[in-house]
């Protein structure tokens, strides 16, 4: 990975020395390969993140910025000339550390990702590609000891591309494909900040040190040992990062489970309190009815109102045949009642039995929260209503949410509704989370806003019975 920096530093013959076309071509190829390694490594982990609007234009802007920086470094190398080997390796360490930091900004520019998500993708991807670089250097050292010329264009390109392909493929199969990108988007683990110096010092710094020792003529046995140790350090770093991400997912699942239990207890308490209240009111009414039968006063109107209110709260409990769905719908029904919103539910919860409770919570929670927020802005009581239908359809399950809204709704280029919040960086993940959940179950997600009515549809195929 240090070929380009060495080419711009130690390989120059001195101040003002012109470079041959072959040397220039080697430098350009080296820079291109560096970019391919970095993009390939980071892309393994960032591939599932939601892209920002005008993604292609942003990519072109980054490519242009890289070209400008490369030309500036080339100009500086031509004007400065040769540098000492020690300074050359120090330049490599500084350059790649700066590239590491710049990649964090690039990921945030291209994707709807927080700084913590960007840190994970960049440090993990950078480590993976550095592992490929170490493998390339190891093969080159062994080939050099065997009398071959690893700097020959054919050998250099073949060695680089084969090692990169094998390492990135192994990283994908063993690690990257296991990552839950919904959980990744929601990740907020400040421990990721510590991975920057780890990757800079342990991964990049150690790699540069091995290159320096190899350049000084270190025996092949020591070079192989150091390269293997560098590979182990890369693998360990990737494993630590995965564990940090896994811990976030476990904590999220535990929070969902705790929420389910808390909601179940709250519903049970609510039902008991409502029943007790109804029994008390019925007892009072029984006395008033007896008094009325004996020629007493009429039934107290306030007592009837209290009874009606208690019954309405009791009736807000939802029973669909799915415990998790019952919990979230009951919770949202109570929220709607407090806000004067009519929530109409026709739901076959048993049809969603194949979905994980956490996914049900995220899907219906986000959908209903968005609908409640939209209708809460309306002044007309007749329009403060939400309709939810869950039914079996065409061998799968259809989920339809419909509500009125005020103002204007905009959609991004990929058909996703954009957040109406001023702080776009901190909002707008709910709908993308719903789409990711639908796609995880091989389903589809769509939304439209027309004529003051917002419609959301999720189609999930029924799982194949084994």
Topology overview:
Elements: H1 3-8, H2 21-46, H3 55-80, H4 85-110, H5 115-145, H6 153-174, H7 181-185, H8 192-215, H9 220-293, H10 301-315, H11 323-339, E1 342-347, H12 357-376, E2 385-393, E3 396-404, H13 429-440, E4 444-450, E5 453-461
Helix pairs in contact: 2-5, 2-6, 4-5, 4-8, 5-6, 5-8, 5-9, 8-9, 9-10, 9-11, 11-12, 12-13
Oligomer category: single chain
- Helix content range: 55-70%
> Going across the major beta sheet, what is the strand order?
1-2-3-5-4
Tell me the domain tally: 2
Which structural class do the helices and strands define?
A: alpha+beta
> Distance between termini?
49 Å
Q: H/E element string? A: HHHHHHHHHHHEHEEHEE
Radius of gyration: 31 Å
The whole-number mean of residue pLDDT values reads: 77
For the largest beta-sheet, the strand count, sense and barrel status come to: 5 strands, mixed
Q: How much strand?
A: 5-15%
Unreliable segments (pLDDT under 50, ≥5 consecutive)? 1-17, 422-428
What count of helical segments does DSSP give?
A: 13
The general outline is elongated
Number of strands: 5
């Amino acid at each position: 990975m240090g070929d380009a920096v060495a080419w711009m530093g130690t390989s120059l013959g001195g101040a003002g020395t012109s470079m041959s076309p072959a040397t220039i071509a080697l430098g350009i190829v080296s820079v291109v390969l560096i970019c391919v390694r970095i993009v390939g490594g980071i892309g393994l982990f960032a591939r599932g993140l939601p892209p920002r609007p005008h993604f292609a234009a942003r990519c072109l802007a980054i490519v242009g910025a890289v070209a400008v920086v490369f030309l500036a470094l080339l100009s500086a190398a031509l004007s400065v000339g040769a540098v000492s080997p020690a300074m050359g390796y120090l330049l490599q360490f500084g350059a790649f550390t700066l590239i590491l930091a710049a990649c964090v900004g690039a990921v945030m520019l291209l994707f709807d990702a927080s700084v913590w998500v960007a840190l994970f993708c960049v440090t993990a991807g950078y480590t993976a590609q550095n592992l490929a670089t170490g493998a390339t250097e190891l093969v080159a050292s062994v080939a050099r000891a065997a009398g071959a010329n690893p700097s020959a264009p054919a050998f250099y390109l073949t060695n680089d591309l084969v090692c990169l392909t094998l390492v990135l493929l192994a990283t994908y199969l063993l690690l990257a494909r296991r990552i839950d990108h919904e959980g990744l988007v929601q990740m907020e683990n400040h421990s990721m900040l510590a991975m920057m110096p780890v990757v800079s010092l342990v991964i990049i710094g150690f790699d540069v040190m091995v290159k320096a020792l190899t350049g000084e003529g270190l025996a092949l046995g020591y070079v192989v040992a150091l390269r293997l140790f560098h590979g182990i350090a890369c693998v360990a770093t990737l494993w630590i990062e995965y564990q940090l991400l896994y811990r976030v997912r476990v904590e999220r699942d535990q929070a969902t489970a705790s929420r389910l239990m808390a909601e179940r207890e709250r519903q049970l308490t609510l039902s008991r309190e409502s029943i007790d209240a109804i029994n008390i009111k019925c007892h009072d009414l029984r006395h008033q009815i007896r008094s009325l039968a004996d020629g007493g006063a009429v039934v107290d109107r306030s007592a009837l109102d209290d009874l009606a209110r208690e019954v309405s709260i009791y009736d807000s409990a939802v029973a669909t045949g799915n415990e998790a769905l019952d919990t979230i719908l009951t919770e949202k029904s109570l929220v709607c009642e407090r806000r004067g919103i009519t929530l109409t539910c026709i739901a076959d919860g048993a049809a969603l039995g194949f979905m994980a409770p956490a996914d049900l919570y995220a899907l219906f929670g986000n959908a209903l929260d968005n609908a409640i927020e939209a209708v809460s802005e309306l002044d007309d009581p007749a329009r403060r209503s939400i309709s939810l239908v869950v039914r079996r359809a065409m061998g799968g399950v259809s989920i339809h949410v419909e509500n009125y809204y005020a103002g204007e709704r905009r959609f991004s280029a990929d058909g996703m509704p954009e957040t109406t919040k001023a702080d776009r960086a901190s909002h707008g993940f709910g709908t993308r989370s719903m789409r990711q959940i639908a796609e995880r179950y091989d389903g589809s997600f769509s939304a439209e806003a027309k004529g003051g009515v917002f419609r959301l549809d999720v189609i999930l195929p029924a799982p194949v019975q084994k």
